[in-house]
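By convention, the token line describes the chain's fold. To illustrate:
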Amino acid sequence: MTNILFLCTGNSARSILAEAALNHLGGSSYCGYSAGSDPTGTIQPLALKTLQANGIDTTGLSSKSWDNFIGSGAASIQIIITLCADAAGKACPVWLGDGIRCHWGLPDPAAVEGDEHSRELVFKHTLDKLNNRITALLQLDSDLFFKSNNQQQLQMQLEHIHQQALINE
């Protein structure tokens, strides 16, 4: 099984959406996790509403610290994907632990102001972007995930997924 950790600062929206989406799409071959460098401790209600409206299970989701994924007893993480965009003036967390790292920067849907309907659309759009990237990740050659000599190639492929998505969005 490939464990993937999605990181943001607050772990309340993007990383939560990504964790749930990967667990929904990835079957038994992938396990998604999420965390924040400075977690809010709560999940944005519109993140949960968006996931549920799209038939994605929200059981067990929580806003948590990346400290949960460091040290003995922590899940072994193979891939770390940061999702933050620094438009909010906060630095993106830098993972210093093991694993292949890449960045899929997306604007924070929780930072968008407006009426409820407009905000719901932004959360849905963010989930769609994540679903597209995760679907592309799931289509990668499985050998990239399991052979240590392919780590640089896997990292390049993960970065390419994000770059291609930006072009197509």
In short: The chain has a mean pLDDT of 91.
